[in-house]
């Protein structure tokens, strides 16, 4: 076939500076471009445009302003040799794009004005966006914050993941219980993605292997798959904050290789042929909604392999486009494994190098080991990924062989290093031989990586001492810590505009780029006038949230009450039910003494439970049942309110964190790897009540012990109490308040007299209580009393709140990414200069036009 005619830059076109004005940033140009998109893209007269039309038109207007930077970034990266980060993650929980892009472009206020000039409300347009919920929670959201920081720090990076057709399920609450429905986030189309069919790749699955000797007498292996699927990339632009860098998030969608399987079709089996197509395309249909647990589901393993195989092929394509040999893979790419979900990449890269490119095993292993690094996100042993050998071999027969080979060579090394230590061999082996044999993905990830990191100091220590102790003793130098962080662009500048204005007025806007600068706010904690303004900002945020709560749940809440907030996935180890026990204790105090001095509080809960996690679903029902009683008791309802916010997601979070007074971070010490919600609350001026777990410890150190409310056992005490034989009933027997609380539940007080409803919750608590609620109850309730006392002193509380924000600089994801870049990836920033659209030439700084940021265009 002939090559299609290519669009050539003509001399006339190269003097056409139309792109500068077409995508300029002034209010007038935005307004005109927006109207053009309503007409030409949405095909509507302005008067007939729906809410979605308006959103799509503004999204396209903003996208147009990213494209020139996106292309310039790609050209810049293509033409220079620096190392690129490939961030491999099964989840990217990006949240809505439009507002964030307006912030990073620096045109939020201009866009608002442009919309206002058309009698449109920017907030209403922003609210139209259906967020891409392609993640479960912390891990997926971390990947999104990291993408923002990578671009903002001008580091060449690609995010690789899966374009799930259905993201995390939508949660509604019916009769107090969670009901799931599918997340059809693509129903109105996605203006932020570009399908790149020309870079589609093929992925093999199943079948068997054949061993043979090639013409040069070399032993070779051929993988004969049972099926092949297409992987089609969909690219979204990731713009940095006020820089020209636009990195790419590349998500893969599975498609059938042939629209019709002619073989089957010709046999007359039309439906059978179509069915095959449907089966292939099922691969990227849905995100698995469980976090921190894994059942060995075949489709999930296929998903993991699929996106990793697509991504590695894509990296090899980029490598060869630069004319570099496959053996320089590790020099070109720093591949980060976001947990073990993409760890199969280690075996896949070995396969590509050895089988497809004929690289000798030792060299292939050198390349692989110098390319990969692994981040662990869990301390729960049950969450460590393992795949049944039988299933693994059925889907990835060649990879199982490669894993055996890696394992054999590795265990030889261990045998010599730890002479005679047989049990160490069984613990370190990539194959778990206990019971049903399993492939241990964490061991594979550790073995194939040059660096292994935890996500908070405590987590990294416990990783070394406990979960990955044997691996640590093998390679102590591989281990490091990078404490998590979150992006101040989304989590302050976008979600809390009032605070952003106030802070910027006081100390300038440098803190948005460099959050350490927010420390300059410290002296303002002693400024009474500033404290009042801070209070006013927070009060307004609380009013906004109260309005949202009323719209979404019908419950009226008082913005003058303390907003005591716990939003995160529902889990036993996170202990939402401990917070509920405290509410019941307060309820009991008021009922026993109507004049009891109780600080008015509104308890807000939000979070999804994995659909198959019955205990977690019962915890939701527990919250809503207590809410029912408390909110309807005339004696109590003006002092205590309990609300469960349905469908907590990124969009919702942006409204909640800025309105919280108290942040609940109450996991059992030693269980939460880091937590990142804790950081979002603190930045926005909420005070934390928390256990000495995950990043809470570092948060307390940063903010100051006087401004953090700690309670409960620490990790060492948890271990000690477990070792000594924990008996929860002792606490029940010796604490009358705890006993009263548990008895109320046991007698069915919160379940209309039906004692059976919450029996599974509380029988477990009295007998085993694996997350030690009863051990921490007294300390928690006591600490909450200190919190109430502090809240009663407005000056003290506002001071604490200001200092909490002022000292949160360390928890910016920019700091985290700098640590990864320096210590793990060894990558440098590559500033991007704008290219001229038509000529493909680098544009002079003077011509870059408004919003060109060309002054930041260095070397
Ligand atoms: C694995 C296999 C099969 C199906 C699902 C999964 C799966 C999916 C998601 C396992 C785990 C997750 C998510 C884990 C997660 O979000 N962990 C959190 O990561 C945050 C970022 O580091 C930490 O702050 C949290 O402490 C940690 O719980």
UniProtKB/TrEMBL annotation:
Ranges for region Disordered: 1-23
**Which cofactors does this gene product need?**
pyridoxal 5'-phosphate
Gene Ontology molecular functions? 1,4-alpha-oligoglucan phosphorylase activity
Asked if the Swiss-Prot or TrEMBL record annotates the protein with the keyword Transport, the reply is: no
Q: What reaction does this catalyse?
A: [(1->4)-alpha-D-glucosyl](n) + phosphate = [(1->4)-alpha-D-glucosyl](n-1) + alpha-D-glucose 1-phosphate
Which Pfam families is this protein grouped with?
Answer: Phosphorylase
CDD domains under this entry?
GT35_Glycogen_Phosphorylase
Q: What is its EC number?
A: 2.4.1.1
Entry keyword set:
Carbohydrate metabolism, Glycosyltransferase, Pyridoxal phosphate, Transferase
Q: Which InterPro entries match?
A: Glycg_phsphrylas (IPR011833), Glyco_trans_35 (IPR000811), Pyridoxal_P_attach_site (IPR035090)
Quote the SUPFAM superfamilies the UniProt record gives: UDP-Glycosyltransferase/glycogen phosphorylase
Tell me the protein family, please: Belongs to the glycogen phosphorylase family.
What biological function has been recorded for the protein in this entry? Answer: Phosphorylase is an important allosteric enzyme in carbohydrate metabolism. Enzymes from different sources differ in their regulatory mechanisms and in their natural substrates. However, all known phosphorylases share catalytic and structural properties. Allosteric enzyme that catalyzes the rate-limiting step in glycogen catabolism, the phosphorolytic cleavage of glycogen to produce glucose-1-phosphate, and plays a central role in maintaining cellular and organismal glucose homeostasis.
For this entry, the protein name equals Alpha-1,4 glucan phosphorylase
Task: Say which species the protein is native to.
Answer: Cupriavidus pampae
Lineage of origin: Bacteria, Pseudomonadati, Pseudomonadota, Betaproteobacteria, Burkholderiales
What is the primary gene name for this protein?
A: malP
